[in-house]
Amino acid sequence: MNNIPQLYREWQSLQPLSEQKERDIRQQFLVDFNYNSNHLEGNTLTYGQTKMLLLFGGTMGSAKMQDYEEMKAHNIGLEWMKSTARDKDKMLSEMFIRELNRIILVRDFYKTSRDGDYRYKIHVGVYKTRLNSVITSTGELFDYASPEETPQLMSDLVRWYRGEEESGIMKAEELAALLHYRYIRIHPFEDGNGRIARLLVNYTLLRHNYPMIVIRTDDREQYLDALHQCDLLTGKIPYDGANAALEQIQPLVDYISSILEKKLTTLIKFAKGEIPDFMEAKDDPDLTNTNVSVNVSQNVSVKNKIIELITQQPYITVKEMAQILSVTERTIYRQLDILKTENRIERIGSDKTGHWKIKQQTPSR
After folding, report:
1. Which among 251, 280, 339, 364 would be 20 to 30 A from 55, CA to CA?
2. Which residues contact residue 343 at a Cβ distance below 8 angstroms, ignoring those fewer than 6 apart?
3. Looking at the structure, do residues 46 and 179 belong to the same domain, yes or no?
4. Residue 251 domain-assigned?
């Protein structure tokens, strides 16, 4: 039974939310979506590092600069997608999709071929010039559209989407799923296709005034399985996949719908005050890995991480520190008390509006 229409009506009846709740929802999605969509593609930043980077502009721990740059670029792409989706006078276009690719990939770069025999250049925002494919779990080669087919298929994709959006026949979750699948079967770029497909899902939901969703990295197998089931129903010919019918991608529709239903349910509870906060990525294995909050191999303590956070963001709250370090607020309070006792930090002003100060240590003689 599809509960989305009823949940959507209830969610709309709770509008407008308080400014604080709106901010919490916006910031939570910003971190969760960027972290998960990039993590699905191999980005190594932890959840805590992602949050520190996107909310406070800081870094902590060790990670490749390329991953930091990639995460920031993806967030720029997300914000640009949101502003474009909200402008109802602007229709989906190839230029928009190409610009998304250019934004999230930043600049041209080189990749090594699958067999390691040669390197080739990726031109951002430009449709592919070589055939791309994926090796399935059974070891088969699954081809996407050829470079020769791609321009026409992308033109057809945009024309089809505009017509469907104008007709209003499809449900938002159906249109989002079908756009994702048809796009991914074309695979128009040499890199960044998965991230753009997930941005397009949220572009569609936002155009229909639905909340955006997160496909979580710990749900990778279910996500890929839904796409695989659709592949079995549409067949291996790229053109057929790029023109798939709604009934052929029902597994992906069901998958997207289940995430949207959970998101609406959670938002309604949050709006009603039934839950104090939420984290769409809370079940991610990386969040329970000690590397998110404490790099055991480097023997870095939570206490020292708190010092690092306060140094970069003096106005950071206990709640934010707990979320970044993936520990309880009680743990943060306990470590703060220890740091105060050691005369390493002090609180300036009230608990609500004040800030933290790192105290200078007197060198021992």
Report:
1. 339
2. 359
3. yes
4. yes
How confident is residue 325, by pLDDT bands cut at 50, 70 and 90?
Answer: confident
Q: How far apart are CA 189 and CA 99, in angstroms?
A: 12
User: Do 354 and 347 form a contact (C-beta atoms < 8 A)?
Assistant: yes
The amino acid occupying position 115 is D
Same domain, 298 and 262: no
Which residue range(s) make up the domain with 106?
4-272
CB neighbourhood size of 71 (10 A):
22
Instruction: Give the pLDDT score at 70.
Output: 96
Residue 255 lies in a domain: yes
pLDDT reading at 216 higher than 50: yes
CA torsion, ordered 74, 81, 211, 18, to nearest 10 deg: 90
Find the distance separating the first CA and the last CA of the chain, reported in whole Å: 73
Q: How far is CA 158 from the centre of its chain?
A: 23
Which of these ranges, 7-11, 49-53, 198-202, has the smallest mean pLDDT?
Answer: 49-53
Find tokens 């230029």 and name the residue: 95
- Supply the Cα-derived Rg of the chain in whole angstroms: 23
**Which pLDDT value is given to residue 59?**
80
Q: At 339, list the tokens.
A: 């740091």
pTM reported for the whole predicted model: 0.81
Q: Are the C-beta atoms of residues 211 and 264 closer than 8 Å to each other?
A: yes
Q: Are 127 and 147 in contact (CB under 8 A)?
A: yes
**Residue type for position 45:** L
The alpha-helical segments, DSSP class H, found in the chain are 4-13, 19-39, 47-56, 65-86, 94-105, 150-167, 172-186, 193-207, 220-234, 238-242, 250-272, 285-288, 290-293, 302-312, 318-325, 329-341
With b for 16 or more beta-carbon neighbours within 10 A and e for fewer, the 100-139 pattern comes to bbbbbbbeeeeeeeeeeeeeeebbbbebbeeebeeeeeee
